[in-house]
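Continuing the series of single-chain predictions for the mutant panel. This is the parent chain; the variants come on the following pages.
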Amino acid sequence: MAKGTQNIRVPAKFKYLYQKKRYKVYYGGRGGAKSWAFAIVLLLKGVQKPIRVLCCREMQHSIKESVHKLLVTQIERMGLQSRYKVQRDKIIGVNGTEFVFFGLRHDPQQIKSFEGADIAWVEEAQKVTLESWKFLTPTIRKAGSEIWVSFNPDLATDPTYDRFVAHRRPSSFVIKVNYSDNPFFSREMMAELEYDKEEDYQNYLHIWEGECATTSEAQIFKNKFTVKDFKAPEGMDTFYFGLDWGFSSDPTAIVRCWIKDNELYIDYEDGGVGIELDHTHKVIDAIPLANKYTIRADNARPESISFISRQGYNIVAAPKWAGSIEDGIEYIRSFSNIFIHTRCREVISEFTHYSYKTDRLSGDILPVVKDKWNHYIDALRYALAPMIKFRDLTMTTKGITGY
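Parent structure:
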């Protein structure tokens, strides 16, 4: 414990953070205190001696998406205000310790300048692509340097889970930690856990017990999509773009897709939680050609559409109607194949989890779509809205004329 700090405790399983290994990997369900414990230990290490800490995640459009706020909260909680000076995009220790924050996908050149980092903390690592791991791992090359990894598992095929849990690397601690390992788990969180446990046990296992997502008959796109690498064909000039606005804890999401021979291809995504409206242009510009094509967005935010339009983007409201969600689902399912590029981790995750509700007593699948795991899928529906609407009107016309 650093001199002058309070007696701060972390759950016992995090004792391995103080032992020497190249990789320290903590994974598990919500409430396991992974991020909280990492922040505390890193701050205490930074008081004891000068260290350079690279805090990174797959995508970071603004400092709000980083662990900057978490670290500041812990500095105040531990009474370390005299040891650290908080800057807008950095945290600097009075002894020379430095915390910096970058997105692996968007800031690779800047990260190269941190090859002398002592510790790289990769937060929300379930979203990190294989390409990002191949870039980051050799970049952190200082003698004795470490890579700390914290994440809630999603798919067993995700690069992070496969790389560190399914196939454990030499010189690594790989620790599963859940709410049951956290003596500070709150009653409020326990109530949330118990609700999920009663309403959807498979979801409970995934969210709270840290199990990888499993397939079920309730999954809307089960066996309907393939994940692989691909490129748009030479000369392809028809792309569709959709954008879903973020609300509080919901992410802003944008996707690009195209259609060929009754096959749907989804090749780019971007987005994140907490993106301010005046930073939305960064999300749009991350998608190739999005600034040149029409973007169809959720019509629930006309003022946001107007703001982005004034910034020079061709953005319009996607229509909605009674049953538009169900019509959109059926249209997407009607493709002979759906291909999702490996870099579209959020789209892959949503296509895996997006489900119908099930009856709690009988287990029957209900004709009601769960309002979760749907932000990038909503963006996809908006992108395809002209075709979905045309299909709906055609069906209506046939019903009227008796064809």
